Structure formats: structure tokens, C-alpha cells
Amino acid sequence: MKAAGLDPASAHVRVRIGEDADEVARLGAERIASVVRSAVARRGWSAIAVSGGRTPWTMFAMLGGHDIEWGSIGIWQVDERIAPHGDPDRGLTHLEASLPASARSRIHAMPVDDIDPDDDRTLSAAAEAYAADLPAAFDLIHLGLGEDGHTASLAPGDPVLDVVDRDVAVTARYRGRRRMTLTYPVLARANEILWLVEGHPKAEPLRRLIERDPSIPAARVSAANQLAIVDRAAGFSCR
Q1: What CATH number corresponds to the domain at position 224?
Q2: Model confidence at 90, in pLDDT bands (50, 70, 90)?
């Protein structure tokens, strides 16, 4: 599959290895801060998108230690579970808890509150509305990597993997929840993809990501500029 005219096999993932999870979080926060400061200095604003999961929580909190003009930053969600507001399964719940207080008003939350997960028409309309709010291209998109090779909510075997005519789509059920997610074309347009990967169980999918193995969804992200910040447990085969 090609996304937005780019060949995933031609993409290259640079790897930086941190000693442990705390160093990975620190390096990730430093990279995000550098990218958004550069964009704001260049044109007066910056747009980033961030993923859910436990791995980035410390990184989000560490952003509070950086000099960032949050009033000039927009923060979009990469994906979100279809669940009520405040549900512990929601990525937004933890994003709001982790980010510095001054950044929380800059979040563009995926509109999934109070939607029946089986109401395809309403979900489709919500996805279209979120797509209409996206920037033309993100300065940086933060992604995670699942043990099964998924990223965002682009999971193995889901029909959403083949969506190339929409920027936002809704998945089938995955681990008990349907999800709203950015699609490959949006990821392809990003100026930078920042992967955050931790733990020995991620070593094999990380290897396959770096080798551009198209059998895992993560390796089909075709943005030209990709950086993976990983801990030693995940990155032992990269040394």
C-alpha cells in the first residue's frame, strides 16, 4: 500500500536509544519542544498530534519543564476509543491529566463523547468533522508501537488500513472498543514522526518497523522523516 503517493519501503526510521523509560520520556519531550519552538519561531504557530497509551504519560508531563508558548500550539489526538467522557479507557482522560495545565486548553479532542459505538452514521459524521479541523500537515506526530505491530488505531486486519480517501476513520472493535483514528495519508504528510517505544516485548515489532516489514501496520507509515526514541530493552537489536 502507498499512502499519499509515498512508498513505505523507502521511508527510513532513525533510532535513538535511551537508558531507561525516564530517559526515553526526557528525550521525547526535548524533541517535541524543539520542533514546536522552531515552528512557532518560523511562522507563529505549531500543530502536533499525540497518541494514547501509558508510554507517553511521563513525556507529556515533562513538557511542563520546557519553555513552550502553548498559546501558539495546537494539540490533536492521533486516535481515541469510543467511550464516555472521563472513562479511564479514553486517551483524552490521561492526556489531560499528564499535560501541563497551560497546555490542556490547546487540545483538539476527538468528538466521541456520548456516541453509540454501533451508530455508524453518527461515528462517520464525527470523523468527518474532526478531519475538517485538521491542519494541512502536522509539524510532528507522536506514535506508539504495539506488540502486534499496530500504531495509532491501525491494527492488523482492520479495514481501516485500506482507507486512503479520508483523513479520519472509525475502526472495527479492537480489544473491546471501536476507535477513531487518523489514517495513513495524514501520517504520511507529517513533517516528522516521533516513535516512542519501551520494553522487551516491543523489540520484535521495532525490528520489523525499522526493516520496513509491510506485514505490520506500523511499517506502512510512509512519512520520510521518522525518529524512534527507544529504551535499551526495546532497542537491543538496534545496537
Answers
A1: 3.40.50.1360
A2: very high
